[in-house]
Write a structure and sequence with these properties.
homodimer, 153 residues, alpha+beta, Jelly Rolls, six-stranded antiparallel β-sheet, 3 helices
Chain lengths: 153, 153
Amino acid sequence: MQLSSCYLFQGLSEYQINQLINIGSEAPIQKDQWLYREGEDTQQIFVLQEGAVELLTTVDAIELPITILRSTGDCFGTSALVEPYTYSLSARAVEDGSVLAFKRVDLELLKKQDHEFGCIIQANLAKHFLERLKETRQELKIHFKTIFKSMHH
Amino acid sequence: MQLSSCYLFQGLSEYQINQLINIGSEAPIQKDQWLYREGEDTQQIFVLQEGAVELLTTVDAIELPITILRSTGDCFGTSALVEPYTYSLSARAVEDGSVLAFKRVDLELLKKQDHEFGCIIQANLAKHFLERLKETRQELKIHFKTIFKSMHH
C-alpha cells in the first residue's frame, strides 16, 4: 500500500514513510464492526487497506451518514491527533477488509523525534479540516436555501 | 494588546511574539467596511484591537451571519495560512475600531526562518478548524432534527 496516498502523510520523505510503516499494525475489519464511536477517547488512527468504512454521526438515535471510504489509503480517526483527542464521528465497517492502525502514542513519539514529521502532519490536518469545514458549511447553505424557498411559496 | 490571547499564537515564546509584533501593522476599520470577501485570494490575516467584525457567508445573495467578533485578540482571515489560500468567509466591520494586520508573505518568511513557529501555528490552526467543523456539524444536526420532527407530525 502507498501510505503517501493518504492526505495525512503527503509530503513526507521516504525515510519518514518507512518510520511510519514500522509503527503501523494490520488488522482485519468485518462488516458491521464499529471501529470507534463519536466522543470516545482516541487511541488510534486508521488507514484503509481493503473493504469499506462508513463515517457517521447520530441525531436522537437516528444515524446521519457523513461519508463512505472505499479507497486504499483513505485515512480516518485523525481527530486523534488534535486536542481534545476524541473522535468527532463514529466509524463502522460496511464491508469486510483490513486497516492499518497507528497508535496515538507511537505517532506522538515519532513527532517528538522528528520535528519536521510533526509539522507536515499538522499542516495536512489543518488543510483537511478546513476543506471539511467548507463542505459542511456548503451543506448548511443548502438547508437555508430550502427554508428560504419554502418561505417564499 | 496581548497577541498571545489570539488562538493562533498560543504557545509561542515571548521572542516569537515580538517577532510577530515587528511585522504587524495597525489599521483603522470603519462600520460597514468590507475587510475581505469570501473566495478572494488571501493576502492578510487580522487580529481585532477595537470595535467589532462580523464573519458571514451569502446564500443566493442573502447574508448568513456566522459569528461576530468583539474581543481584543480575536483573529480572522486565518484560512490565509492554508491551501488554497482563499478566504472561506466574508468579513465586515459592524463598529468603528482598529485591527492589526499581518501580511501572508511576512508570516511565511517567519515560518521559514523559525520552524517551531510554523509548527505551533499549524497545530493551532488544525485545532481551530476542527472545533469550527464540530460546531457546524452540530448546526446541521439541528436542521435534521427539525426535518425529522416535521415528518413525524
